[in-house]
């Protein structure tokens, strides 16, 4: 896990997410790229250098956030991008190779009824980069117990489980698998990928209307430090494909959530 990207916005709590990322990165000797996206277009006359000025302001803001955290000798670099957030993420990933994004659930969104706000929702929905969603105020601690919940055991990409493998190896984590049979499941969905089975300490199969309801049923008994889910159009955060956000009534936990991307459904 070489490069970790931390997008920050205008939230006054941005330094908390960055501190978690720093503490996490220290465990893996990772570098952190602190990123802010802005939108500015150069014009004629006095506005000719507007984009340069806005970029400088963004860099100043990032430096102010960095100054609020204990760097723990973690290598931190500043990354800015003029344009759309998703385009910026894809550009920096193409240039550097990003292994993990660490972000808060709601970023700039202030609606209390939301678990995933518009910004974080777009990142989870429109990138294939593994994403760790860290609740506000979360303090890093070794990840000893992981609940991995899914509705289909089919995984088509070889490296999709790599972040989970790395975390398990580092912290000697116990991984509990939760297969939730939802309406319309097929026999193929019940065939769990062998690489995923190799990681698990325990497998539980349950049946519910949604994967989240299955998680709710088993959350207290497993008491996880981390919830791992898969990004699918008809998977855990399926409502993202309709509205770029997730309500707390649809999903909400107070622990970090690792989202691994499955490109094909």
State the end-to-end CA separation: 26 Å
Whole-number tally of structural domains: 2
CATH topology (level 3) name of the largest domain: Rossmann fold
The CATH fourth-level homologous superfamily of the largest domain = HUPs
| Strand line-up across the major sheet | 3-2-1-4-6-12-10-7-8-9
Q: Any idea what the shape is?
A: globular
- Biggest β-sheet strands, sense, barrel: 10 strands, mixed
Query: What percentage of amino acids are in beta strands?
Result: 15-25%
Q: Strand-and-helix sequence, N→C?
A: EHEHEHEEHEEHEHEHEHEE
Walk me through the topology.
Layout: E1 3-7, H1 14-28, E2 31-38, H2 50-66, E3 76-82, H3 85-96, E4 100-103, E5 114-116, H4 118-126, E6 131-133, E7 145-150, H5 162-171, E8 174-181, H6 194-199, E9 202-207, H7 211-222, E10 226-231, H8 240-243, E11 246-247, E12 257-261
Parallel strand pairs: 1-2, 1-4, 2-3, 4-6, 7-8, 7-10, 8-9, 10-12
Antiparallel strand pairs: 5-11, 6-12
Notes on the structure:
This protein is α/β, with parallel strands linked by helices. The chain has 2 domains: 3-103, HUPs (Rossmann fold), CATH 3.40.50; 145-261, Rossmann fold. It has 8 helices and 12 strands. The chain has helices at residues 14-28, 50-66, 85-96, 118-126, 162-171, 194-199, 211-222, 240-243; strands spanning 3-7, 31-38, 76-82, 100-103, 114-116, 131-133, 145-150, 174-181, 202-207, 226-231, 246-247, 257-261. The strands form 2 sheets. It has a 10-stranded mixed beta sheet, sandwiched between helices. The chain has a two-stranded antiparallel sheet with strand order 5-11. Helix 5 links the parallel strand 7 and strand 8. The protein is globular, with a radius of gyration of 19 Å. The model has no long low-confidence stretch (mean pLDDT 84).
